[in-house]
Amino acid sequence: MISVRVESIYSVGLAKILLDSGEDIQLISPNEELVSLLGVTPHVDTFDVHIGDLEDRSGLQIKGEKDAVDRVLSILRKVLTDSLAFRYDLEQDAVYTAVVNNFLPHKKVGFLDLGDGQTGVMFAPRLRTGLRMIVQVKELPSESGKFPVCSDQINLAGQYVILEKSRDGEFVRVSKKILGDLRDRMHMIGQRLRPSGFGLILRTSATEVGENVLAGEIRELLKIWDRAVARLEEGSIGKVTSGETLVTLLLHYETKLKLDEVRSKVQPVMPRYHAFKSYSVASGFGADYMLHFLDRVDRAEAAEVLEAMIMDRDYRVDTPLRAEFRKMDGTQQDFILGLIKEKGRIFRLRKDLDAYLAEADSSSFVVYEGDYIETFLAKGSWTVHYRYYSNDGSFIGDRIVVVTPIDLSFRGKVRTTEFGIEVYRDGQSGAIDVVTETDADLLNDGIITADLDIKLGEVMEKVLTSLRSSPTPDPIIIMD
To answer: I need a labelling partner for 151 at 20 to 30 A (CA). Which of 73, 124, 128, 443 fits?
Structure first.
């Protein structure tokens, strides 16, 4: 059995996929929607896997024991085939003995040798080169070439308690879910059991076992700390104890439509329900509010009204359209695509190039100050089509970038991930060139699914067919 805690704006869809998989899945601490819509029995316990939202609502963080995470990820991606999965070499919350290889006082940052060729960073004013210390991985980098962020605040987590070694000193805290007299009783138990020099946190599950079980778990956690101290004293560096596997699962426009389909099996929702949920807190509230009236109003009309409100507020003609484009190495670019000239099913943008923009242009075309770019894209499109023009209006060429289905993002942005595939057509000769920017094997690396690999091939074929069919094709907007 795999126990899973789901805390997400996509909770109902994700939970239904897991429960319908035929696997032995138990949902821990389900919210009211999961109880009422899926009939999940409320159950408080520790869990093997936690599923939560990324801060910007663009996807999920799946964290837990490696085999369980892999299994849950596999179940989800059989349905959400357009999702992208990014894994990390190190484990969240793993504990290491480390040495400060270099400290930059002006930036208050130290670079740590974690052993086995791994490097971490730590932000603290009191470090010095050569200092040996016990650290814990707190934040894993999403970009290649970046290092994990470490801290000397150590949290040793068990099933029922957490021991904390930090500058906060000695304390006892009780889970906020434990209330009333039981909370007072658990606090007293914690005062009796807390080891000297540590803080003690009692988890919700601590109420389900006796004091002797809690004491036994504390003893086992102390052994981890003692082992770390012993390794530090003998001068060795490296991992003391493993942490949790962390996977980032990016969900794009098509995956959200799929989650709409899954959720609709248990409760009617308006079209693009999860796209509204991910756009902003306000639009998500509006989508949830409309759930109470969908038996009285037309669902498609409700979605159009909500979308019209967003478009009128955040995507006005002659205002800049901002882009948030991720790349396969984890880096992210935020820039202005151009001024909105037309909107509707397709956005048409224009960007006039000054000297700086001409120099910064990332295409293979040679452009100069005074040239301009028209860009075409659509919500849910697998392509962004750029058309380059010289300052006298003559056509330079087409550039089509293959991306994940484009999402609208809060405050007049669009969000997508580039696959590192671009197609060029020269405006004079008509010659077509396919450029691949990444050497990564996205399928074998587990970033994309086999279904998505096939779909990308189909998208490329449609792009090439469109470019070959006409000397001046209409904007190439590839929808699913």
So the answer is: 73
Q: Which CATH code for domain 320-469?
A: 2.40.380.10
**Do 95-243 and 320-469 share a fold?**
no
What is the DSSP track for 193-222?
HPPTT-EEEE-GGGGGS-HHHHHHHHHHHH
The alpha carbon torsion through 289, 59, 262, 293 (nearest 10 deg) reads: 10
- Crossing angle of the two packed helices 281-290 and 299-314, in degrees rounded to 10: 160
Q: Where are the domains of the chain?
A: 2-88+246-263, 95-243, 273-314, 320-469
pLDDT confidence of residue 4: 94
Q: What is the pLDDT of residues 2-35, one digit of tens each?
A: 999 999 999 999 999 999 999 999 999 899 999 9
Q: 49: which residues sit within 8 A by CB, 6+ positions away? A: 2, 3, 4, 5, 62, 63, 64, 65, 68, 69, 72
- Cα separation of 425 and 222, whole Å? 65
Q: How far apart are CA 52 and CA 449, in angstroms?
A: 21
pLDDT at 210: 93
Residues 331-353 have pLDDT tens digits of: 888 999 999 999 989 999 999 99
C-alpha distances in Å from residue 230, one per residue of 175, 190, 191, 292: 32, 27, 27, 60
Q: Is 154 helix (H, G, I), strand (E, B) or coil?
A: strand
Look up the pTM and report it: 0.85
Residues of the chain short of pLDDT 70, as ranges, are 144, 439
> Torsion angle, CA of 234/237/242/247, rounded to 10 degrees?
170
**pLDDT (tens digit, 9 = 90+) per residue, 33-87?**
999 999 999 887 778 999 999 988 999 999 999 999 999 999 999 999 999 999 8
What sign for the dihedral angle of Cα 91, 94, 99, 105? positive
Best CATH choice for the domain 95-243 from the list 1.10.10.10, 2.40.50.140, 2.60.120.10, 3.40.50.1100: 2.40.50.140
